[in-house]
Specification:
By secondary structure, this protein is mainly alpha-helical. It has helices spanning 2-23, 33-47, 49-72, 81-98, 101-116, 118-127, 130-149, 163-187, 192-215, 219-244, 249-274, 290-314, 316-326, 332-343, 349-374, 377-401. Helices cover 81% and strands 0% of the residues.
Length: 403
């Protein structure tokens, strides 16, 4: 019975690919040929390795013959997409018989999506600039190359400086930044100030604050962008806690989310005043640079080591001091390091979320100082009011009253 189920899956995946190729009017293979190819791969795999190898060679020969025939007829589109899809689906049919069914179905489904998204993918490739391509390549370097060669072993007395683990956090942070940047590039300036603030919080709320303070534009508009960016930081922090400390998330998330809701309320109040004129958004810089990734890795390692050492020798008070300094310019390092210690059981969840909020207060104070130095007095007044009520006020209440 299990064999018939797998043959049914092979038939279904072949029909799916064949339907897509038929709609594209591909002369080489369509809605009948692809199911036959996938079933052939499945049956060959049942017969044995020799049969599968012979079947693959035969299908490969037919693919070559079909490609040459199309070339002689002078076909305009002489790409290899359908030919590669034929070979892949033969292999998928065989793998369904021998390997894990979910993997085979996932590969077949991914093949269908890649074929179906031809226009969208080609359009995306044509619209992105050289700098964006470079960013994607650098992210691939960060993710696929560097992460794979780093040793997965701790080298310090506190057993926290694991190069592979540290760089994995770098991949996570850069990935979030790049995703927000890609969304901004896709939407352009259509989202206005709301988009600039929301995505600025995912990319870098501190950099967004610097940009808006230097712009010397309308203070209400700049204030809402900075406030929104600072609000989204809470979403980013919660995402990092969920990934790094999943078993502690239920204990750590509620008080952080409560302060975030207070920030959101302040953002919505200001947004109602300025949304009619909030049309211009300052473009963010590309976040997938290798140098900032290395700087963040070093900063994260230092904060992680300092947090572990402070907790070991001075208890919770020492960790709060580290949070005050590390939270000045960036929340990622203190959030990730604290969450990791909480996940490992070396820091209580109640202390961990309080440390994160202390780092958040330090970060808000630093951004307010940036506005005071680079921005206008009117912008500083609005930021102090917003940060004072939504930030320091709400955080102080949560720290004092949360059980």
């Amino acid at each position: 019975m299990e064999i018939f189920e797998k043959l049914g899956l092979a038939l279904g995946l072949g029909l799916l690919i064949g339907l897509q190729r038929e709609r594209m009017q591909n002369p080489l293979a369509g809605i009948r040929t692809f199911p036959l190819i996938t079933l052939l791969g499945a049956v060959c795999a049942l017969l044995g390795d020799w049969a599968f190898a012979a079947g693959l060679a035969g299908v490969g020969g037919l693919v070559i013959a079909g490609y040459l025939a199309e070339a002689r007829r002078g076909a305009e589109d002489r790409g290899l997409t359908t030919e590669v899809a034929i070979l892949l689906m033969f292999a998928v049919g065989g793998y369904l018989m021998r390997g894990q069914t979910t993997v085979g179905v996932a590969v077949g489904g991914a093949c269908a999506l890649l074929l179906h998204w031809k226009r969208a993918m080609h359009g995306f490739a044509r619209t992105i600039g050289e700098g964006d391509v470079t960013a994607i390549m650098r992210f691939a370097l960060i993710t696929l190359v560097i992460l794979q060669v780093l040793p997965n072993e701790a080298y310090d007395p506190y057993k926290v400086l694991n190069p592979h683990s540290i760089w994995l956090r770098v991949v996570f942070v850069v990935g979030m930044n790049l995703g927000a940047y890609a969304l901004y590039r896709a939407l352009g300036s259509r989202g206005g100030a709301f988009l600039a603030g929301a995505l600025g919080g995912f990319i870098s709320s501190t950099a967004t604050t610097v940009t808006q303070a230097r712009a010397k534009g309308a203070p209400d508009l700049a204030a809402i962008v900075i406030q929104l960016a600072s609000t989204v930081v809470f979403v980013r922090v919660l995402a990092e806690v969920a990934v790094v400390a999943p078993s502690r998330f239920a204990r750590m998330a509620p008080p952080i989310a409560l302060v975030g809701v207070a920030f959101l309320a302040g953002s919505l109040l200001v947004w109602r005043r300025v949304r009619a004129n909030a049309t211009e958004a300052q473009p963010p810089s590309n976040p997938a640079e290798l140098k900032p990734a290395l700087v963040f890795a070093a900063a994260y390692a230092v904060v992680l080591l300092a947090t572990a050492a402070a907790n070991e020798h001075f208890g919770g008070r020492g960790v709060y001091v580290v949070a005050m300094f590390s939270g000045l310019t960036d929340m990622d390092a203190i959030t990730l390091s604290t969450s990791r210690l909480a996940q490992d059981g070396r820091l209580s969840p109640d202390t961990a979320w309080r440390v994160i909020l202390v780092g958040m207060l330090s970060n808000l104070a630093f951004k307010a100082a940036i506005v005071g130095i680079l921005g206008s007095r009117a912008l500083l007044t609005r930021i102090l009011l917003l940060f004072g009520l939504a930030g320091f006020g709400a955080t102080a209440l949560v720290l004092a009253l949360w059980p």
